[in-house]
C-alpha cells in the first residue's frame, strides 16, 4: 500500500453518502449558470446569426437592419475582435467565420435587452452566401481524401506474418454512429467586466482554465485579467471540455464592448445543431484467428468523422487506437487512424473519449466471427483475455488482468448465466416470433490523460479560525459527484466529520492552470491535490498539538474532530485550530499532485500513458420481436472495478448512468444528417428529443444488478480508489451483442449477423431478416456437420456448426 492509497482508520471516504447537491438537484434549488441571469441587473442577451449552408463563403454581412430592431444594442462581428479571432487551441476554429463550415455555423451574434429582441435582430442581419461543395459523410470524406490532423499508427509485431499464421482470416467494414451529449443544461455563459477591466465569466465548462485562455486571446488580455468560474454543470459528458470556450468568448467580448453583463445560453436546437458530438467512426479490418479461436493478428484502419475542425479529434483518435484491443491479447497488430474533415459540427469529447469507438471495433469483430468460428462468443472472449505479463500493443504492461477474470466469473455466477442460457435456448426453440439472447462483454479502460502533462492538479484548502474548512480544487462538478468525493477526501485527510468541510465553486483565480475535468481523472488528480494540501495543514497542526499534549508530533492522531496524543491527552480540532492561529501557524495550504510513472510518445504511439486500467463486465439479456425488431432488455448484471470506492453511492450512480448512456449510444440514439443533394444537405434532421431517441425509464433493463468488484485496492491512486466516470459506458456492448445473438437466433445455428450501430429496432429488424434469409439459403445443408465443443465456461446451449471458412463478413452501413 502506498501512502497515497492508504486509508486511516474510520475514514470518511468509502462511506455511502448521497451526492452533496442531491437535495438541491431534486428540489430545483441548485444554481446553474443561467440561474444567475435573474440575479444580475442589466443583462444583455446574445443570439446567433446562422445560415442553412453546409459549406459556403460569406460574401456580405450587413448588421445595420438589426440595429433598427427595438431592443437590439449591438451586433458582434469579426471586426470587433481585438485579439485572435479563434475559439479553439488549434487555430482552425474562427469565432466569426468568413467561410461557413456546417449548417447552423454562427457568423455573427446580436446583443439585445431581451432574448426575443436578440432573436428578431439576428433574423434581420443580412448575410449573403456563396455555396461551395460539401462533404457530409465519412465515406464521402474517405473517397475525397478529406482528412485533417495527424494519421497515427499503433503497431506491434508483424501483422502480415500474423495473418499468414492464422487458420481463419476474416475481413469486414463497420460504421458506427456518433452521439449527442444531450446534457440537460445547454451551453451557457454570463460575462461581466469590472471597473478595472477585469473580466469575470461564469460558464458551464469542464475546462475553466482553457475557457479563460481563449477568452483572453480573443480579447487580447493576459490570463490574469480573466477569471472563469463554474458553479456546476447540468451534465457535461465531454461536450463541455472544448466547446464552451467560443460562447464564453462571445459573452466576454459583448461585455467588454457594452460594459454590461452579457448572457449567452444556447437553446436546445442551437445546442444540438451547433455543438460537437461523439465521433462516428468507420473501420476497415482484417483479422486472423488460430484454429482454437485465438486472435493472431489485427490489421485495421479507423477513420473518425471529425466534423469541420480538429477540436479534440486527435486525442480522441489516440484513445481509440489505444483501446482497439479492449481486453484481448493480440500478438501482431497494426491499427492506422485518421480523421475525416466533413461539413458537420466539430466532433469532440464524449464519455469514453474514443475508447468506446475503438473497443467497439474488436467487440463487433468477435461478435461477428464467433459463429463463423463455431465458438461460443462467451468462450471466444474469455479465451482471448490478457493474462499476467502481457503488454498492450502500445507497449504498456497490463497490470491485474486477473481482476478482469474475477469480475467475469463473478458475473457468470451471480448472473446465473449458464442456467439462463439453457432457459433461453428452450424459449427460443418454442417461440418462432420472439428470440432471446444473453451476451457477456468485458471492459478494460486506461485511466489518465494520454498527454502526460495534463496529469496534474492543484487545490487550495483554507481552515478558518473557527475550525471550519473551505476546499477549492481544480475540478468541475457536472453531476458525477466529484465534489462529494473531494469533501470526503478532505474530511478523511483532516480527520474531521463531513459537516465541517465545505466546497467553493471552481474558479481560475483560486486554482490556476488546471486540466479539464475529463478522462475520468477528476477524483484521482484533484483528490491527490486536496489530500496534499490537507496533509500540510495537518502536519503543522500536529506540531501545535505535540506542544499542547506533550507527545511527539508523529504520535498525534486526527479522527472525527478529535485530536489525540498516543498515550497522552486529547483536544478538539476547533481548540487546536484556535491555538494554531494564536501561535501564528499558517492555516491554509495549496496542494499539488502529479501522476507518477507515466510516459507517452505520440510520434511512435508507444509508452505507458495510463496509471492503471479500470475493469468491468456486464451480462445482458434481451428479447427481440421478429415482426418489428423491437426489443426489451430483460436483465443486466454488472461487476465493475472502482478500486476501493471513495463514495459507493456516487460510484453506483456513475455505473448505472454510464451503462444506460452507452446503451443509448449503441441501441437508440440515431443522429441523422441530411445527405441528399437538396438545399437542406448537411442539416441535422434529428434536432430535438422528439426525433432523437434518448434512453428513458421505459428502456431501462427490467432487472439491473450492479456490484462493485471486491479486493480491488489500487495502489497508485488516492485512498486506493479507481476512476469511474467513463468506463461503465462500455458495459453496454453486452446489450448490442445480445441483440446480435437474438437476431441470429432467427436463423440457423452458426448464423453471423451484421448489426448496424445504433442497433435501433429498425436495424435489429434488418439483422433478423438477414438471419432469416440465411435459413432459406442453408435449407438444403445437411444436418449434423461436426460442431465444436466449447470449453469452460461452456455456456453454450445449442450445438454450433462452423460455417464456410474465409467468409468475408460485410456490414450494412447505416440502415
Ligand atoms: N456523470 C454525470 N452525472 N454527468 C456528466 O457530465 N461526465 C462523464 C463522467 N460522468 C458526466 C458524468 C465524463 S465524460 C467524465 S470524463 C467524467 O464523469 C468526469 O468526471 P470525473 O473525472 O470526476 O470522473
Ligand atoms: Mo470526459 S469525455 O473525458 O469529459
How does this model look, in words?
The structure is a single chain. α6 (208-219) crosses α7 (244-258) and α18 (733-744) packs parallel to α19 (761-777). This protein has 815 residues and is of the alpha+beta class. The chain is globular. Helix content is 28%, strand content 23%. A hairpin with a 2-residue loop joins β22 (556-559) and β23 (562-565). It has a domain at 22-29 and 456-594: Aldehyde Oxidoreductase, domain 4, CATH 3.30.365. Bound molecules: ligand MTE and dioxothiomolybdenum(VI) ion (MOS). This is Xanthine dehydrogenase molybdopterin binding subunit. Its EC number is 1.17.1.4.
Quick recap:
With 815 residues, the protein is an alpha+beta fold. It binds ligand MTE and dioxothiomolybdenum(VI) ion.
What order do the strands of the largest sheet run in, or round the barrel if closed?
3-5-1-13-10-11-12-21
Q: Indicate the percent of residues in helices.
A: 25-40%
Mean pLDDT: 95
Q: Specify the structural class.
A: alpha+beta
* Unreliable segments of 5+ consecutive residues: 780-807, 809-815
By DSSP, the count of extended strands is 30
Stated plainly, the CATH topology of the domain at 22-29 and 456-594 is called Aldehyde Oxidoreductase, domain 4
Compute the CA-based radius of gyration: 28 Å
Specify the overall morphology: globular
Report the portion of residues in β strands: 15-25%
EC number: 1.17.1.4
GO molecular function: xanthine dehydrogenase activity
Domain Aldehyde oxidase/xanthine dehydrogenase a/b hammerhead: 27-133
Protein name: Xanthine dehydrogenase molybdopterin binding subunit
Amino acid at each position: 500500500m502506498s501512502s497515497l492509497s492508504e486509508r486511516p482508520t474510520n475514514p470518511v471516504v468509502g462511506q455511502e453518502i448521497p451526492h452533496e447537491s442531491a437535495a438541491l438537484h431534486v428540489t430545483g434549488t441548485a444554481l446553474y449558470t443561467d440561474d444567475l441571469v435573474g440575479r444580475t441587473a442589466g443583462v444583455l442577451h446574445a443570439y446567433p446569426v446562422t445560415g442553412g449552408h453546409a459549406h459556403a463563403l460569406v460574401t456580405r454581412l450587413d448588421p445595420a437592419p438589426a440595429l433598427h430592431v427595438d431592443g437590439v444594442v449591438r451586433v458582434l462581428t469579426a471586426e470587433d475582435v481585438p485579439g485572435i479571432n479563434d475559439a479553439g487551441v488549434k487555430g482552425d476554429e474562427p469565432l466569426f467565420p468568413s467561410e461557413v463550415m456546417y449548417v447552423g455555423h454562427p457568423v455573427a451574434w446580436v446583443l439585445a435587452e431581451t432574448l426575443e429582441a436578440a432573436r428578431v435582430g439576428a433574423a434581420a442581419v443580412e448575410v449573403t452566401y456563396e455555396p461551395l461543395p460539401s462533404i457530409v459523410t465519412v465515406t464521402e470524406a474517405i473517397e475525397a481524401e478529406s482528412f485533417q490532423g495527424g494519421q497515427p499508427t499503433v503497431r506491434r509485431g508483424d501483422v502480415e506474418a500474423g495473418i499468414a499464421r492464422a487458420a481463419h482470416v476474416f475481413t469486414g467494414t463497420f460504421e458506427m454512429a456518433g452521439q449527442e451529449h444531450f446534457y440537460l443544461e445547454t451551453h451557457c455563459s454570463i460575462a461581466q467586466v469590472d471597473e478595472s477591466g477585469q473580466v469575470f465569466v461564469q460558464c458551464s465548462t469542464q475546462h475553466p482554465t482553457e475557457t479563460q485562455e481563449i477568452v483572453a486571446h480573443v480579447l487580447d488580455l493576459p490570463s490574469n485579467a480573466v477569471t472563469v468560474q463554474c458553479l456546476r454543470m447540468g451534465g457535461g459528458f465531454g461536450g463541455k471540455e472544448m466547446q464552451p470556450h467560443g460562447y464564453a468568448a462571445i459573452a466576454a467580448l459583448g461585455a467588454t464592448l457594452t460594459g454590461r453583463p452579457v448572457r449567452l445560453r444556447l437553446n436546445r436546437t442551437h445546442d444540438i445543431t451547433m455543438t460537437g458530438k461523439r465521433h462516428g467512426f468507420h473501420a476497415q479490418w482484417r483479422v486472423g484467428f488460430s484454429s482454437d479461436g485465438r486472435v493472431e493478428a489485427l490489421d485495421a484502419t479507423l477513420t473518425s468523422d471529425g466534423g469541420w475542425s480538429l477540436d479534440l479529434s486527435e486525442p480522441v483518435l489516440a484513445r481509440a487506437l489505444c483501446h482497439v484491443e479492449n481486453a484481448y491479447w493480440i500478438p501482431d497488430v497494426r491499427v492506422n487512424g485518421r480523421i475525416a474533415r466533413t461539413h458537420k459540427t466539430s466532433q469532440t469529447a464524449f464519455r469514453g473519449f474514443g475508447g468506446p469507438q475503438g473497443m467497439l471495433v474488436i467487440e463487433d469483430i468477435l461478435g461477428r466471427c464467433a459463429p463463423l468460428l463455431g465458438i461460443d462468443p462467451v468462450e471466444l472472449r474469455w479465451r482471448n483475455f490478457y493474462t499476467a505479463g502481457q503488454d498492450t500493443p502500445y507497449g504498456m504492461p497490463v497490470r491485474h488482468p486477473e481482476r478482469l477474470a474475477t469480475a467475469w466469473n463473478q458475473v457468470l455466477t451471480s448472473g446465473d448465466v449458464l442456467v439462463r442460457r439453457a432457459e433461453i435456448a428452450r424459449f427460443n426453440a418454442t417461440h418462432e416470433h420472439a428470440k432471446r439472447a444473453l451476451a457477456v462483454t468485458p471492459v478494460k479502460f486506461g485511466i489518465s490523460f494520454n498527454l502526460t502533462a495534463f496529469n496534474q492538479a492543484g487545490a487550495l484548502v483554507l481552515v478558518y479560525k473557527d475550525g471550519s474548512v473551505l476546499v477549492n480544487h481544480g475540478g468541475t462538478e457536472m453531476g458525477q459527484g466529484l465534489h462529494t468525493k473531494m469533501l470526503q477526501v478532505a474530511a478523511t485527510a483532516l480527520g474531521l466529520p463531513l459537516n465541517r468541510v465545505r466546497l467553493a465553486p471552481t474558479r481560475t483565480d483560486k486554482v490556476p492552470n488546471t486540466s479539464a475535468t475529463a478522462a475520468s481523472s477528476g477524483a484521482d488528480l484533484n483528490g491527490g491535490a486536496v489530500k496534499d494540501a490537507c496533509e500540510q495543514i495537518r502536519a503543522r497542526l500536529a506540531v501545535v498539538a505535540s506542544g499542547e499534549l506533550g507527545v511527539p508530533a508523529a504520535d498525534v492522531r486526527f479522527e472525527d474532530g478529535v485530536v489525540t496524543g498516543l498515550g497522552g491527552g486529547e483536544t478538539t480540532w476547533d481548540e487546536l485550530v484556535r491555538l494554531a492561529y494564536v501561535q501564528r501557524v499558517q492555516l491554509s495550504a495549496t496542494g499539488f499532485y502529479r501522476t507518477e510513472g507515466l510516459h507517452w510518445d505520440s510520434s511512435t504511439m508507444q509508452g505507458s500513458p495510463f496509471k492503471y486500467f479500470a475493469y468491468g463486465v456486464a451480462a445482458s439479456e434481451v428479447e427481440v420481436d421478429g415482426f418489428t425488431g423491437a426489443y426489451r432488455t430483460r436483465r443486466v448484471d454488472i461487476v465493475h472495478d472502482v478500486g476501493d470506492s471513495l463514495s459507493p453511492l456516487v460510484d453506483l450512480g456513475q455505473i448505472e448512468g454510464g451503462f444506460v448512456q452507452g446503451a443509448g449510444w449503441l441501441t437508440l440514439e440515431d443522429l441523422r444528417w441530411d445527405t441528399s443533394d437538396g438545399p437542406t444537405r448537411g442539416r441535422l434532421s434529428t434536432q430535438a428529443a422528439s426525433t432523437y431517441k434518448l434512453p428513458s425509464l421505459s428502456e431501462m433493463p427490467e432487472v439491473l444488478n450492479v456490484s462493485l468488484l471486491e479486493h480491488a485496492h489500487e495502489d497508485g491512486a488516492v485512498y486506493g480508489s479507481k476512476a469511474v466516470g467513463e468506463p461503465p459506458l462500455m458495459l453496454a456492448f453486452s446489450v448490442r451483442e445480445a441483440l446480435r445473438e437474438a437476431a441470429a437466433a432467427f436463423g440457423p445455428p452458426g448464423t453471423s449477423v451484421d448489426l448496424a450501430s445504433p442497433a435501433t429496432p429498425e436495424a435489429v429488424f434488418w439483422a433478423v431478416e438477414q438471419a432469416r434469409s440465411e435459413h432459406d439459403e442453408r435449407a438444403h445443408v445437411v444436418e449434423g456437420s461436426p460442431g465444436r465443443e466449447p470449453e469452460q465456461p461452456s455456456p453454450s446451449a445449442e450445438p454450433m456448426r462452423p460455417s464456410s471458412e474465409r467468409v468475408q463478413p460485410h456490414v450494412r452501413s447505416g440502415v
